[in-house]
Amino acid sequence: MAIEGPLRELGIHDVFQLLDLSRKTGRLRVTSALRDNEGAVFFENGRVIAAGIRSNPHPLGEVLLKAGKISEADLERARAEQAARGSRQRLGEILVAHRAVTPRELERHVRAQIEAVVFELMSWQEGFFRFEEGDVGDAPTDFVGSISTESLLMEGARRIDEWARIAPRIAHMGMVPVLASLDDDHPSQLDLLPNEWAVLAMIDGVTDLRGIAERLGRSDFEVARIAYGLVTTDVIEVRPPEPQRFDGLGDDDAGHHLARARGAMDGGRYEEALAAAGAAVSAAPQSADPRLLLARALTALGRHDDALEEARRAAAAEPARGDVQRALGAALVRAAALDGAIAAWQHYLVDSAGAEDATQVAELVEAAARLRDGVGALNGV
């Protein structure tokens, strides 16, 4: 019998505790429409043995390569052998057999992968979970042991507390680190640990913290914690990412179409705005700005479902932008998706602390929460 429900009614921590206490064996699937993401955790007798997430699959070979534990030649040889065997043997087992990596090193990295996925899922406040009991002999992992669910919950709680300490200086992983300006107060030499030097060496003024974590094969939490230490010691500074703007003057570029769309919106010519914004999206499909304007035009024309879809695409294109999350929250409210709206606006408040409309958005969060709870009480839920 499956156990399922919305995370709003039973939080992910409670789900993990339930599976731990009842010593369940099976697969827990967690989905989030707001994040357009999905994760899976495999349990055996209440302990975690494997985990994966769609947004960051953490290929084991690439993680070991980035960590400097294996070479390109080691990885290519192992992949070729795995392909020749029809993927019947796991990549990690092949690398250990070739002595490219030790069993202990393999276990450490696979365990870190599992923990990263679990801690990511523990941060989700909205979504849906489903646990299906049954054999997990085919769980996708090179991990030969298991992890105590209780220890994961304790570490998750500790990380939540540490994220709260980090957040005032590192608002989100989309922040871009840059080297701080030197002055007379700076020491002539830096006394940094190897993992701090590794992060510092990746700073180019363009790559955000999430990109650095991916390149190093390390978790977001580890890189954020290192960046926090470098910021507090004035070694680096962090800046919000530059929005992808278009100011061109040609007839075929996104900037021209955006200017037309904005002028049409200001003049109440919504059909014209819709056409111009659509042309801007075609010219710059990876930018959030054209999709935000398209969502505004669709909303003005009463096409709220289509507007929500464009707002979601804008959030997928540039999730770190506060104005995108604010617009997504408004679109979700119009679609009566109050949980998603609350989550998007809370994201905005974290990313845009001190913004002029932060108080107004906070009030909207409270109002939406009261409405959601009131509707639930009215329906006896």
Question: Can you tell me about this structure?
Answer:
It is a single chain. By secondary structure, this protein is an alpha+beta fold. It has 16 helices and seven strands. The strands form two sheets. It has a five-stranded antiparallel sheet, covered by helices on one side. Strands 6-7 form a two-stranded antiparallel ribbon. Helix 6 runs parallel beside helix 9 (220-232) and helix 14 runs antiparallel to helix 15 (338-351). The model is unreliable at 243-251 (pLDDT under 50).
Main attributes of the structure:
alpha+beta; 7 strands; single chain; 381 residues; two-stranded antiparallel ribbon; five-stranded antiparallel beta sheet; 16 helices
